[in-house]
Amino acid sequence: MSDVRQHADDIHDQFSDHIDVSVDDVEERLTTLVDEYKVPIDEARRSVTNHYLEEAGLEREDISQGGSEEVNVEDVDEPEQWIDLTAKVIELWDPRSDSVAQVGLLGDPTGTIKFTKWAKSDLPSLEEGAVYDLRNVVTDEYQGRYSVKLNSTTVIEELDEDLEVGDDTSEIEGALVDMQSGSGLIKRCPKEDCTRVLQNGRCNEHGEVEGEFDLRIKAVVDDGIDAHEVIFDKEATEDLTGLSLEEAKDMAMDALDTTIVADEIAADIVGTYYRIEGPTFGRYVLADDVEELDGPADAEQLLIRARSM
Ligand SMILES: [Zn+2]
After folding, report:
1. Tens of pLDDT along 168-203?
2. How far apart are the CA of 302 and the centre of ligand 1, in A?
3. Distance 194 CA to ligand 1 centre (A)
4. Which one of 18, 78, 107, 267 has the minimum C-beta count within 10 Å?
5. What φ, ψ does residue 184 adopt, rounded to 5°?
């Protein structure tokens, strides 16, 4: 069976109880998107599914999910995918909405991911520390962070085993194509456990405060496929630029301007190739281990492409 036919079959199975549609109809829609409009098959599948949801007057949660795929946490990189996970409940948090029954963090050997279980899905309670086989969960994305949602079609089976949970480490190799605002010599709120970056001398939480200087870089690194946001803390910034916090403060003092530090750093690093390794925190990679590389010959091309994104 062809790939498109297989997807058509899956979609047909989901809707055959609700509307009068043939596998051929579904396949034709998919084929048009894939062949004529060059839409990737996953996207075509989503689009065609949405079409039939609308036609049937159904919500996504209402349809049965055949053919969801067993994946690892680190493989979740797209919203609206139906997947199966084997994962341990690391933490449960207090739901902030009545529509949510449980919310927390799941983990497997490849990483961790947030989960939400809808109240109306009427599923059994997950226990902290237990390992589950979760079938038919749907992926979601918010501001670059992925999560999974347990819904009324989800099947939960508790497993009598432990699971080692890994941290999400990323390795990126590519050109540092942009440095974002909030980089260079910054001031942070001095209140305990706050450390928010001040905007014009003000903390979002604590108002006007006497800030403490810090060095940081928020950069965009393009590996040729994706753009990644990378944060360098004080130590990583000092290592990367050879500029210490004290030197940066002196530089800003001499110029009577803190932005000179960011300008100097940007001139030094933008356009350079790096291999960067570190844990991921939401949409950011925290640079732990950085190595400068000789860039490929088409560095200029890459920069032009990156600017046009
Ligand atoms: Zn504060």
Report:
1. 778 899 999 999 999 999 999 998 778 888 988 899
2. 39
3. 5
4. 267
5. 95, -140
Tens-place pLDDT, residues 92-120: 888 888 889 999 989 998 888 999 999 88
Ligand 1 centroid – CA 98 distance (Å): 30
Please tell me what DSSP assigns to residue 295.
Answer: P
Å from CA of 207 to ligand 1 middle:
7
Q: What's the confidence (pLDDT) of residue 297?
A: 44
Average pLDDT over residues 232-257: 95
Q: Tokens standing for 206?
A: 């604590």
In which element (H, E) is residue 239 found? helix 234-241
Q: Which two tokens stand for residue 195?
A: 């450390």
Which of 295, 290, 299, 303 minimizes the C-alpha distance to 170?
Answer: 290
pLDDT tens per residue, range 202-215: 998 899 999 999 99
Whole-number pLDDT of residue 229: 93
Distance (angstroms) between ligand 1 centre and the Cα of 11 equals 50
Residues 89, 127 contacting (CB under 8 angstroms) = yes
- Residue 301 CA to ligand 1 center (angstroms) comes to 42
Amino acid in position 269: I
For residue 189, report the distance from its CA to the centre of ligand 1, in Å: 4
Instruction: Using alpha carbons, select from 171, 175, 179 the residue that is nearest to residue 296.
Output: 175
Could you tell me the distance, in angstroms and rounded to a whole number, from the CA of residue 173 to the centre of ligand 1? 35
Residue 31 CA, ligand 1 centroid: distance in Å: 55
| CA dist., res. 152 & res. 183, Å (int) | 44
From ligand 1's centre to the CA of 210, what distance in Å? 10
Write the pLDDT tens digit of every residue in 54-97: 988 887 767 755 557 789 998 898 888 889 999 999 888 888 88
Q: Which helix (H) or strand (E) element contains residue 83? A: strand 82-93
